[in-house]
Write a structure and sequence with these properties.
Length: about 110
Amino acid sequence: MRYLPLLLLTLTLSACSTLRQTPEAPPPPTQQAQEISRGQTTNLTRLGSITSTTRGSPDDAQREIAKKANQSGATYYHIVALSETVMPGMWYASAVLYGPATGNTQQ
């Protein structure tokens, strides 16, 4: 019983470290917008955000986000929300659009 607070503290601190992502370089730009992880957004220029409400499956919502990202001219996008609405079969997705990396590599 004496070690329980220490165990809980250790578990809490280790759980916090799993939420951090190590920054990494995004893939080279292509003609199509590419989905990237949060850790790859470090030096990119934020262009805005897009949303989509789509009937079908989560894949349909992700395809709709990719289509909108391409139409907007973004180089990359990061999906921040993907969930089913209160209506079965209707999916909501939200993404942040990014452009090419900035010249400044310091944070």
